[in-house]
Design a protein that fits this description.
Helices cover about 15% and strands about 40% of the residues. The protein is built from one helix and five strands. The chain has a five-stranded antiparallel sheet with strand order 4-3-2-1-5, with no helix packed on it.
Length: about 80
């Protein structure tokens, strides 16, 4: 896995998945861990993320792509 500083990763903590930005890549003894930070948080997360926790990497998004499904949902549910 070639994750770099600035990328957004989704990682598991217990039963929850969290999406945060990588602010530091730490390499020690052939192991890699990631320091992350939520974009709206003032400080980096306390715990480092291990490679095996990572569920995915945010690649890109298409703005407004989900709107038609929201409109259809609202239409058929009387909202």
């Amino acid at each position: 896995m070639n994750i770099q500083k600035g990328q957004i990763i989704v990682y598991a903590v217990g039963e929850k998945n969290i999406a945060h930005r990588v602010v530091n890549v730490i390499r020690q003894n052939e192991k890699v861990q990631y320091q992350t930070k939520g974009d709206n948080n003032n400080a980096p997360d306390m715990n480092l993320v291990k490679t095996e926790q990572i569920q995915g990497v945010y690649v890109f998004h298409i703005k407004y792509l989900g709107f038609p499904s929201i409109w259809l949902y609202d239409y058929f549910n009387g909202k």
